[in-house]
Specification:
It comes from Rhodanobacter fulvus Jip2. The chain is mainly beta. The protein folds into 2 domains: 1-135, YVTN repeat-like/Quinoprotein amine dehydrogenase (Methylamine Dehydrogenase, Chain H, 7 Propeller), CATH 2.130.10; 146-257, 7 Propeller (Methylamine Dehydrogenase, Chain H). Helices cover 0% and strands 54% of the residues. The protein is built from no helices and 23 strands. The chain has strands at residues 2-3, 9-12, 18-22, 30-34, 43-50, 55-63, 72-80, 86-91, 99-104, 110-114, 119-123, 131-135, 142-148, 151-156, 161-165, 177-181, 188-194, 197-202, 207-214, 217-224, 230-236, 239-244, 249-254. The protein is globular. The chain starts with a strand and ends with a strand.
Length: 257
């Protein structure tokens, strides 16, 4: 999920071919993006509102018709934040990719995770085609991605991990560094940074937590538990929003200090 500059909520559906909006102050959602023409079974994963470029970024997943075992193609899609008009479409390489989530870096580039193929892609400002940024075996299962104080962090939904991606003097990423979380985080999914912390939705343990990073350790503080498959989290001012896939709802809590 994402929050636009005017307070509009954008929520991608993992079971229908729609991205929905909820206007500020409203309690019901309305379809905003309709991808049903892409084929049966199409759905969305990550959603990001990039106010600087007036772009709504999404990951669109579409099953390959007749494929056995089941395969799907996934695409990075960009839409105008106000009108929903298409701006960019790029299909991830490979026979069975999983575009999952993204973040905008200090360099204004978009960084995209591919869960199935252990890759991070980078879309430079103004570019139409992303480039491969990092391919590493520890990234098989990569999901949430966020920059905290200029440093790139990613989580792994398969193996319940958190990694820091170091960058050398040449600007190239190095081997991901395992960050030890001092409490279990099962199924880390959507992840965002705010107020010097990472916020993560754990779909396996049904929790929203904050992660305070000190060196190679992350202190886990549970903010909300007892949820049914939370998948997305979004800080917005003094509010922390999150999605609960198991109930099809979006909730908010006051932003923790």
């Amino acid at each position: 999920m994402a929050v636009g500059p005017d307070g509009t909520l954008y929520v991608g559906s993992a079971s229908t071919p729609y991205v929905y909006t909820v206007k500020k102050g409203a309690t019901t959602a309305a379809p905003f993006i309709d991808a049903s023409a892409a084929g049966p079974g199409t759905f969305f994963f990550g959603v990001l509102a990039d106010a600087a470029t007036h772009t709504l970024w999404t990951c669109q997943l579409t099953p390959v018709a007749g494929a056995t075992p089941v395969r799907r193609t996934t695409a990075l899609r960009g839409f105008d934040l106000k009108s929903g008009a298409p701006k960019l479409s790029w299909t991830l390489p490979g026979d069975n990719s999983t575009c999952n989530d993204f973040t905008v870096g200090p360099d204004k580039a978009l960084y995209i995770t591919d869960t199935a193929n252990q890759k991070i892609y980078r879309l430079a400002p103004g570019a139409q085609v992303p480039e491969l940024y990092l391919d590493h075996r520890s990234l098989l299962g990569i999901d949430g991605i966020a920059f905290l104080d200029g440093t790139l962090y990613v989580n792994n939904v398969f193996f319940n991990k958190l990694y820091r991606v170091p960058v050398g003097a040449d600007g190239k990423p190095g081997t991901p560094v395992d960050i030890w979380m001092d409490a279990p985080v099962h199924g880390p999914d959507g992840m965002r940074a705010a107020n010097g912390k990472l916020f993560v939705a754990a779909n396996g343990s049904g929790e929203i937590s904050s992660l305070t990073i000190t060196g190679d350790t992350a202190h886990v503080t549970v903010i909300k538990d007892g949820l049914k498959t939370p998948t997305g989290v979004e800080p917005a001012g003094d509010t922390l929003w999150f999605t609960e896939r198991g109930t099809g709802k979006v909730w908010s809590v006051p932003m923790p200090e």
